[in-house]
Design goal:
Strand order of the largest sheet: 3-2-1-7-4-5-6
Largest sheet: 7 strands, mixed
Order of helices and strands: HHHHEEEEEHEHHEH
Helix content: 25-40%
Structural class: alpha+beta
Distance between the termini: 70 Å
Oligomer: single chain
Mean pLDDT: 88
Low-confidence stretches: 1-5, 9-33
Number of helices: 8
Length: about 230
């Protein structure tokens, strides 16, 4: 019996030697390699041409690489250069090189009609704020399942907590309502989502991933503490 046990142990040891080094850790979702952060490479490999604005994507990825120390390889881009009638929220897994979600998303009432053109960090403005955010914890509020956001750029979006700028669901974000008013409904500044995708998106990005809200806005770039350097 002892001899048989020894043979089995030897066989197991030999099999383990045949497994490529790092195979087990690289195939664990909690131990992924650091993602390639070359925007052009990612853009091509994800097949984002004619789907995602390259300038917006490039800025989002550049911010991801500059900020560092993020808990997730998940990057969310909201592109306010697009009208509210189009899908303009994209969630990317940068390690797997794939889009996880694409959705309509609302902007603030103070930011404009179909397009968001005015942005503010001021409480009570009902405007959206541009720039980079860190996703935080979830809670059940007046709009149901919601996700808190922390603005990372002083003077641009750092009052997100004070203004209660969160991701939440709202019936006015359902794209089926667009034909009635010619645009999506608007929030008090929150990037509100359709109820059908809200929980899935929040669960994918909560707990320390990066979110970037983009617009073709030179004032933002001139004052950004992340991209403006």
């Amino acid at each position: 019996m002892l001899r048989l046990y020894g043979m089995r142990k030897l066989i197991v040891s030999l099999l383990l030697l045949l497994i490529p080094a790092g195979y087990l850790s690289l195939n664990s979702s909690e131990n992924r390699q650091s993602p390639d952060t070359d925007p052009f490479v990612l853009y091509k490999e994800m097949g984002l041409n004619n789907v995602v604005n390259y300038t917006a994507f490039r800025q989002a990825v550049e911010g991801f690489s500059r900020i560092g120390d993020l808990k997730k390889n998940i990057l969310t881009l909201i592109d306010f250069s697009k009208p509210s009638t189009e899908e303009r929220l994209f969630v990317f897994d940068l390690a797997l090189h794939k889009i996880l979600f694409r959705s309509h998303v609302a902007h603030g009432q103070g930011s404009g009609g179909n397009y968001a053109t005015t942005f503010s960090n001021v409480n009570g403005s009902h405007c959206s704020s541009l720039g980079f955010y860190l996703t935080s914890d979830t809670y059940q509020g007046g709009n149901g399942y919601s996700l808190r956001l922390d603005g990372l750029e002083k003077g641009i979006n750092d009052k997100a907590r004070e203004r209660a700028i969160v991701i939440h669901a709202a019936p006015y974000c359902d794209p089926a309502t667009i034909p009635q008013r010619g645009r999506l409904g608007r929030s008090f500044g929150c990037p509100a989502l359709p109820q059908a995708v809200n929980r899935e998106v929040i669960d994918a990005i909560k707990g320390g991933s990066l979110l970037y809200i983009y617009a073709a806005d030179s004032t933002y770039l001139n004052h950004s503490t992340i991209l403006g350097q």
